């Protein structure tokens, strides 16, 4: 029988073990798929051919020509089809007197939005996308009257995040954007699949916390502007990571959560999608989550690195206290995600030929 999580008499993690190690230990004792995946990852890390394999993938993504961009767009449409077949994520049932509405937080190239619109004929969409001039992907979604696309950097939406006064000393004080979404503006489906692009042209000071800023702005604006009982599709990475676990745990307390990983594309990577349906947007836990994510965005945008590190240490302790109760649900939700990545890594040439 698996041992319970180790703790000190005060209920805090032992100083020698981080929350990440505790989660890993918990899963290793209970999930054979995760154990086997961990061993394959170790083999990949030990093999220089693994580095070459993933480096080539990154180069292809960062230097995509027109043909590669079209292939990538087609791939995203296929992933979206697979996701919908598995979860029904793009099924929307708005009141009879209005059209379904979709918010896409990071749209380009547009494959996901294309598929969502196909599943909901007559739907309207608002899409944000990083301009190509700033290193964003080119948009291949066919432009129609039903889609309004605004080219901007969503991490700079200070007014939408509740910050109207920008410190004059901030290095990008003049770059923050006016409000894009009115408080009453709601959507039936929100797509949050943006990730930090290596091609994104941005000041160096943003590098260390850009991923956190991008994640939190998508979660806040997505949840704040979601219709009650609507659906959010959120791209996540490394299921056993404590910040990822925290997001899934929070959503599980006010929505129905499914996890999806394509069995055909990006299988060797740790990325996957959380599909949250029947989201209770006015639940106390949802309101608390929004407030905390706003605080984190403000801290990582206007505060110091030390401020965030102090917060993160406390957050790790809190997640430790919450994890043992949530652990069985994480195991239930995550087995297929770990299985798909395990099977893909087992087939990878840098593993088979090691």
UniProtKB/TrEMBL annotation:
Signal peptide: none
Ranges where the Ribosomal RNA methyltransferase FtsJ domain occurs: 98-276
Matches recorded under Pfam families: FtsJ (PF01728)
InterPro entries documented for this protein: RNA_MeTrfase_FtsJ_dom, SAM-dependent_MTases_sf
Name under which the protein is recorded: Ribosomal RNA methyltransferase FtsJ domain-containing protein
Organism: Bionectria ochroleuca (Gliocladium roseum)
């Amino acid at each position: 029988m698996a041992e319970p999580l180790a703790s000190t008499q005060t209920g805090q993690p032992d100083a020698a073990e981080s929350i990440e190690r505790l989660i890993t230990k918990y899963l290793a004792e209970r999930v054979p798929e995760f154990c086997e995946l961990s061993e394959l990852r170790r083999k990949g890390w030990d093999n220089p051919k693994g580095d070459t394999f993933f480096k080539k993938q990154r180069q292809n993504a960062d230097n995509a020509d027109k043909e590669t961009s079209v292939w990538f767009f087609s791939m995203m449409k296929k992933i979206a089809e697979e996701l919908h077949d598995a979860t029904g994520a793009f099924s929307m049932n708005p009141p009879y007197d209005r059209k379904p509405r979709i918010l896409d937080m990071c749209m380009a190239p547009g494959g996901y939005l294309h598929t969502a619109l196909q599943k909901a004929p007559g739907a309207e969409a608002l899409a944000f996308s990083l301009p190509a001039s700033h290193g964003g992907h080119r948009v291949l979604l066919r432009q129609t009257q039903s889609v309004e696309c605004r080219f901007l950097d969503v991490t700079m939406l200070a007014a939408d995040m509740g910050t109207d006064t920008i410190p004059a000393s901030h290095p990008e004080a003049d770059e923050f954007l006016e409000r894009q979404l009115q408080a009453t503006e709601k959507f039936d489906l929100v797509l949050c699949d943006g990730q930090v692009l290596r091609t994104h042209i941005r000041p160096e000071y943003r590098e260390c916390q850009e991923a956190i800023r991008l994640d939190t702005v998508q979660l806040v604006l997505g949840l704040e502007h979601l219709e009650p009982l609507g659906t959010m599709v959120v791209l996540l990475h490394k299921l056993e990571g404590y910040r990822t676990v925290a997001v899934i745990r929070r959503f599980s307390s006010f929505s129905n959560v499914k996890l999806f990983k394509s069995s055909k594309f990006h299988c060797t990577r740790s990325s996957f999608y959380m599909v949250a349906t029947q989201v209770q947007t006015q639940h106390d836990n949802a309101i608390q989550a929004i407030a905390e994510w706003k605080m984190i965005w403000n801290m990582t945008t206007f505060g110091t690195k030390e401020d965030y590190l102090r917060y993160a240490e406390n957050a790790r302790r809190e997640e430790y206290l919450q994890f043992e109760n949530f652990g069985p649900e994480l195991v239930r939700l995550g087995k297929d995600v770990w299985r798909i990545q395990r099977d893909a890594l087992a087939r990878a040439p840098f593993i088979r030929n090691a």
